[in-house]
Write a structure and sequence with these properties.
The protein is α+β, with helices and mostly antiparallel strands. 29% of the residues lie in helices and 24% in strands.
């Protein structure tokens, strides 16, 4: 519908203010009388706290207060609660120790909060923090995922460090299929630990209003309403109306800024204690020790094939490192998503998967762009390539032979979920043509002539998106005819304002200049589950669509009165009600103005025009696609260059091709970063964090990525009226495996058989040298 409707490449409305420095990020929030907080964090991976002396720090210049875990305990603050009910392998209840805000008896990772110092200025708080004397008695620690089971106990109550086991599939049928298989391929894959590294590090500002007896939290969170619920219900144990959460512009979240962090409760609690607003701003060097991390799996995977190369069964056992604390369901969400997409887009008759969530002396892990789906796709697509090398099979043909055909949709996979629609074979064929795979041999020969190694990677990806949780939208007209939309999802850089205005334009035809967009404030927006799992357009957009339908329904009644016509004779299109077969009509803006004038309303109709929509889908959607890339490697230095990248994605109906490509570019960049360079590393003996800054934690830059060639193979879903499936994480899900498959394809001719991410130059060079020595 028109130049601004669904499917049109509309440039983002929010970019003007953001690019001109007119955004309102957390660091832009300044309140009268605000004090500054600094957190004293543990330098040990595991240690007993023998004592904390705060007297000297409390007397330092500008200091208002110094608090410890004992102060929190005296005020009886609560902890986050789990709703997932899992068990340990022996059948006993899941062991999920929550974080209490400030450690009391022990610290369990480098960065564990120990004390809170509040002063007039940041510099004064930092100086005083240096004066807090904490006496530690170091204890044995374990930071390696592979060594977690049976390693040093993180908690005395869980000696084997296994928090819980989650499994899916038919074990007996899978074992039988393996027993009768012609060939079985076995591999171990290590998926590294990473950090989100957003544009603006986390922060929080807490305010206590004694007159209203009410807390206000300013924070860069993805789920404002859920953070409010958690703080009210679990932490402070007060009615929700006594807490307000405000999130402005968020400089990237990627899942890691999702839910309730210890710092949120600390600044609110401290604000009440000192009678002033309290700000905590995480500095870049503090981010990796302070934040939740992501990924960090060790997986043993087995693929069973028959004599013709058809997949018979998949068997997977994963150790998923969840860190030292399991404070909420969020810390386990990736383990669930990891399981159900492990069979990917292939027609496996049977499968059995086990994920052991293991505790270590590291930061808790949580959802990060893709949340389990990149890990699952990585394991499967690496395993398929390894099978092809071991059995001398063609990588494309083996995939073709085993893809689920479009005619089989809807398709229930052996791990219990149903793909409602998709055309996986077409995405593969389109991507092969888009990437000019037929020309790869000549490009490989040209690289060889220059002394370079060239590899081709292929990965078919699918992700579970837009889970069956509700989302809210409201359209509120003013007496002058303008409209404001209130969205329960939270923008964090994806272009929500543009996307939702396009949907509103499609349904109501409103001039976009007449529409205001609001999100992120629990006082202004009635409800919301927030932004995660590629759900905002699918669920939030549908809620907005529903609200628009209600506006049209009420507007038709008012228009019928204004036009002196029967409702049944009215049509609505392009923002205008018209009497069918005539040139008589009235615009929605005029109808909205009339809605506030009782004399222009039909008898009994309530004045005003403000409608809401709350949508919960019947099931998840399944964005999917094919990624193909080529890398070139300098064997003398191990340097990897990503030379070509093409992908075909099915995200259902495309709302905005421009923002879709932006989402895919960003998602691919995050997957590429992990594959080639990003990794959080701990010292195996001391448990010390070795990659706390950008001096040690590498990040992709603009020149890391080539020009991407992107095409769409949309198969709209019938699970929502727009046909959208979600796009925010699709790029990452395929990027992680396709880059490593390309690296392995380049290295395999040298005899490199096993190689795990990251494919940094040093690690690649070492693998080449080891292969040459072995030969």
């Amino acid at each position: 519908m028109g130049q601004f409707g669904i499917g049109q490449p509309v440039t983002r409305f929010e970019d003007r203010r953001l690019l001109q420095g007119e955004g309102r990020f957390l660091d832009d929030v300044r309140l009268a009388g605000q004090a500054q907080a600094v957190i004293v964090r543990s330098p040990h991976a595991h240690a007993r706290i023998m004592g904390i002396d705060t007297k000297t720090a409390a007397q330092a210049p500008g200091v208002l207060a110094v608090f410890t875990g004992a102060d929190l305990a005296r005020d009886n603050l609560g902890t986050m609660q789990m709703t997932l009910k899992r068990k340990r392998p022996d059948g006993s209840p899941m062991f999920a120790p929550p974080h209490r805000g400030l450690a009391q008896d022990r610290v369990r990772y480098v960065g564990d909060p120990v004390a809170l110092v509040i002063a007039e200025t940041r510099a004064q708080a930092e100086d005083a923090a240096e004066l807090v004397n904490v006496e530690y008695a170091p204890l044995p620690s374990v930071t390696s995922t592979a060594d977690a089971v049976g390693g040093a106990a993180v908690w005395d109550e869980c000696r084997d460090n296994v928090s819980n086991l989650f499994e899916s599939g038919d074990q007996a049928a899978t074992d039988a299929a393996f027993a009768g298989a012609a060939r079985v391929i076995r591999r171990r894959y290590v998926i590294t630990r990473v950090h989100a590294q957003y544009m603006e590090p986390r922060g929080a500002m807490g305010v206590w209003d004694p007159g209203e007896e009410r807390y206000t939290l300013y924070a860069d969170v993805q789920y404002p309403h859920r953070v409010r619920t958690a703080l009210a219900t679990n932490i402070f144990k007060v009615p929700e109306h006594q807490i307000r959460v405000i999130a402005g512009d968020v400089g990237g979240g990627f899942g890691t800024k999702g839910w309730q962090y210890p710092e949120h409760r600390l600044v609110l609690w401290a604000a009440r204690k000192v009678g002033r607003p309290v700000r905590w701003a995480c500095e870049r060097r503090e981010a990796i020790p302070a934040d939740e991390h992501a990924r960090d799996n060790v997986t043993d995977a087995e693929l069973a094939l028959d004599a013709e190369g058809r997949f018979l069964a998949l068997r997977v056992r994963t150790l998923a490192n969840v860190g030292a604390y399991v404070s909420s369901d969020r810390n386990l969400l990736a383990t669930f998503s990891n399981i159900v997409t492990l069979v990917g887009v292939y027609a496996f008759p049977v499968a059995h998967v086990q994920v052991f969530s293991v505790l270590t002396n590291t930061n808790s892990t949580a959802p990060y762009r893709g949340a389990g789906r990149p890990e699952a796709t990585y394991v499967l697509e690496r395993l398929i390539d390894d099978a092809c090398r071991e059995l001398n099979l063609d990588r494309v043909e083996l995939r073709r032979r085993n893809l689920i055909p479009a005619s089989s949709m809807p398709y229930k996979n052996p791990l219990g979920v149903t793909y409602d629609c998709g055309n996986f074979p077409k995405s593969l064929e389109d991507a092969l043509a888009l990437a000019d795979v037929a020309g790869f041999p000549s490009r490989r020969e040209a690289s060889r002539a220059r002394g370079r190694l060239r590899g081709l990677g292929i990965a078919n990806a699918i992700e579970r998106a837009a889970g069956a949780q509700p989302e809210f939208a409201e359209i509120r007209f003013s007496p002058s005819g303008g409209a404001t939309i209130f969205m329960g999802s939270k923008n964090q850089g994806q272009g929500h304002e543009t996307t939702f205005k396009q949907i509103l334009y499609e349904r109501l035809g409103l001039d976009l200049k007449d529409v205001r967009y609001i999100d992120g404030d629990t006082d202004r927006v009635a409800f919301g589950m927030g932004t995660m799992g590629s759900r905002s357009t699918v669920i939030g957009g549908t809620a907005l669509w529903m609200a628009a339908d209600k506006v049209i329904a009420k507007g038709r009644k008012i228009a019928a009165k204004l036009l002196e016509a029967a409702e049944a004779d009215l049509t609505f299109a392009d923002g205008r009600f018209a009497v069918a077969g005539t040139d008589r009509g009235v615009g929605l803006k005029e109808v909205a103005r009339a809605a506030f004038q009782p004399g222009q309303l039909p008898p009994g109709l309530e004045p005003g025009l403000y409608e809401t929509g709350t949508f919960v889908p019947k099931q998840d959607t399944w964005p999917n696609g094919t990624h193909i890339c080529e890398v070139e490697i300098d064997p003398d230095t191990g340097a990897v260059t990503l030379d070509r990248y093409a992908l075909v994605d099915d995200v259902g109906t495309v709302i905005n091709p421009l923002t879709l490509k932006g989402q895919i570019h960003g998602g691919v960049a995050q997957g590429v970063g992990q594959a080639l360079m990003e990794q959080i590393v701990y010292d195996g003996e001391s448990g010390q964090l070795l990659t706390a800054t950008f001096m040690d934690y590498a990040m992709p830059r603009a020149d890391t990525l080539p020009d991407m060639v992107i095409a769409s193979n949309p198969v709209p879903t019938k699970l929502n009226p727009m046909g959208a499936k979600g796009a925010g994480e699709a790029g990452t899900v395929g990027a992680l495996p396709v880059v490593m498959n390309a690296v392995m394809d380049a290295l395999a001719p040298l005899g490199v058989r096993d190689f795990d991410m990251p494919a940094s130059s040093g690690r690649v060079w070492a693998a080449i040298q080891a292969a040459r020595a072995a030969r």
